[in-house]
Amino acid sequence: MASKVAVSKVIDDLEKIINTWGENPDFSLPDGTTRQQLEQLRSEIISDNEDIEVQRTKLTGMIDRRDDKASRGNDLAVRARSGIKFTYGADSAQYKQAGGTPLSERKPRVRRSSSM
């Protein structure tokens, strides 16, 4: 995997190089890369970046919907567990089965002494 680079900086750098190369047509790269290849690469980066932003926006919407549903699910689970606790008791097998901690399994509170 390639190292992380700032995409916007790469796009800007390629634009500057393409413009400079256009004003100096005698310039060439030793590996044979042409100005047109740089322009194509820059266009592809911009296109991929736009696609990513569209997908990121969709993903953000999906995450928000999922989180809203999870919040509602959590609220219902808490309410249901409270109903089971009320109906069957705080020390019942049903309450434990629903994910609650029965009174008999709770640790007693430890009182801290003041150290003054």
From TrEMBL:
| Name of the protein described by the UniProt record | Uncharacterized protein
Region Disordered: start-end pairs: 95-116
Originating organism:
Armatimonas rosea
Which superkingdom, per the lineage? Bacteria
